[in-house]
Structures are given as C-alpha cells and as structure tokens.
Design brief:
The chain contains 9 helices and 13 strands. It has about 280 residues and is of the alpha+beta class.
C-alpha cells in the first residue's frame, strides 16, 4: 500500500447506510489523488516523500520495476489536468483510461509516456505485466463486500484499503465471481467508481434488481464521492458480456443525466431516463 493510502486509511471510509541525466524524466505522484482536504504542512510532507519516491524509480532493477508495475483505471480529465503526456493510455470506457503505475513502498507513481519509454520494453508487454499484477491484487488484497440501502432495496459496495480497488473494475466479472459468488450476472452489472477505494455495483438479473441498480448505484456513488478523497469518476456504467457502456452524460445544466440502454429497458420492462445523483 502506498504512502498516501496508509495515511488516508487512518480515517475509515464511510460505510454509506496514486534516470536519465537532467532534465529529469517527469512523473506524477498519483493522478487520482485529491489531497486538497489535508492541512498544508501534512500535504507538503507527503509531497516531499513522493518526490523522493520518484528518485527511487531510477534505482529500480528491471525485475523490481516489473514487479511494481500495476495497471490502474483513472478519470480521463485527471490525466489531462496533470499536464503530462499519456498517449499510451488505453480507453477502458468513456471518460476512463487505463494507465501504468509503480506501486512502491513509499508512494504510487503514475507513469507518463517518457517514463514508460525509458523502460525500453514493448508497450504490449508492459500492459500485460501491469494487468497481471492488478489481477493478482483482486485475489490478495481482501476487500470488504458491503450491502447498502434500506427497505429491501440494496446495492453492493466493494471497499478496500488498496489504492487499486476501483481499478478492479478492469476485471469486473472476475471480481464479482470472486467476492460475490452467488450474484447472477446474466443481465450485466451497473457500476460506478466514486473513489479509488471502492466499486459500487448491482447485478441486473431481475426487473427489481435493474431498477435498484439505476436508482441506487448513482445515488450511493455520488454520496461516497462527495464524502471521500481521491475521486475516480462521477459516471455510471453498465457491464454486459465484456462490453462497458456509459449510462451518464452531461446535461444542459452541467449535471449528469442517466439514460438506459435497450438491454436495460428490456430487463425492466419499460424505458426511462433521469437526472443522476
């Protein structure tokens, strides 16, 4: 677990109910980290330690680099705001990108183009390594599975200390099968990534589950995003047969509007569209 994550873990997340000679090759500490709520002196201390971790990257052996390399899902707008180039970043879904990071003992380091190129290995090989290491975390990080809601209408929240918990959505069907083995995914899964420590989701096996998914996943995800640090994305998605569809779009008033798909309408027996959150 990275430095920032050990610090944030001291305050439990609500249960709802991140070589070459000068000039140095750039890197960013953690593109989905939001430390704006921390006191200035604490934030400055963490930033100093992260800069030290960046220097450690240059001292990694190829084997150590590969062992630390971990794929991560981040919001596209946060990559753009970093001011660095991430041309290699793959589109996992609309508004979400898959990047490569180094999970170091002192910090999580996100790798822009120059850092990746400095490794001197084909991109396909690096992405494969990063995904293998992320998949390993699915089975070794031991996240907690919560049921949230009331009145018999509930959704699930996978919550973990790992800064890669939200990125487990990269292997969503495997995650649900592993941590929620009785779930029926034949109608797909509606999910959201409010912050890097959580995945909010609901399977769509029945009309009621589908209605709950569309009503409650956006609401709980928005509450968790507002209350937590390190947001990933405000959007809501539907996973079905390995395809991920974004269900939200920005409306005229700047807020998100949730829209269904023909598949979801069939599952509910009726069409709908509404404001999200």
């Amino acid at each position: 677990m990275g430095l920032f994550d050990r610090f944030f873990a001291r305050t439990p997340a609500p249960r709802v109910a991140t070589l070459a000679p000068p000039p140095p090759t750039p890197s960013v500490p953690d593109v989905d980290n939001d430390d704006s709520g921390l006191p200035h002196d604490v934030r400055a201390h963490l930033e100093a330690l992260t800069r030290a971790a960046e220097l450690d990257v240059d001292d990694l052996t190829p084997e150590e680099f590969d062992a630390a390399l971990t794929s991560r899902i981040v919001g596209a707008e946060r990559l753009e705001a970093s001011g660095l180039d991430f041309r290699y970043a793959a589109a996992f879904a609309p508004n979400l990108r898959e990047v490569l990071t180094l999970d170091l003992p002192s910090a999580v380091i996100t790798l822009p183009d120059e850092r990746v190129a400095a490794r001197g290995v084909r991109m396909a090989r690096l992405l494969d390594l990063g995904r293998q290491n992320l998949r390993s975390l699915v089975h070794t990080s031991h996240p907690e599975l919560l049921t949230v809601g009331e009145g018999g209408r509930t959704v699930r929240v996978l919550m973990g200390d790992s800064p890669y918990t939200a990125s487990f959505a990269r292997f969503l069907s495997e995650v649900v099968e592993t941590h929620d083995p009785e779930a029926d995914m034949h109608g797909g899964v509606v999910f959201a990534l409010p912050h890097r420590h959580a995945v909010v989701y609901q399977t769509c096996a029945t009309p009621q589950q589908t209605r709950d998914a569309l009503d409650l996943v956006p609401a709980h995800a928005e509450a968790m995003r507002a209350d937590g640090l390190s947001p990933v994305s405000p959007h809501v998605y539907h996973w079905l047969a390995r395809e991920v569809t974004c269900l939200t779009e920005v409306g005229r008033d700047g807020g998100l509007v949730l829209r269904t798909t023909p598949e979801l309408e069939t599952l509910m027996g009726a069409g709908r569209h509404r404001a999200a959150g």
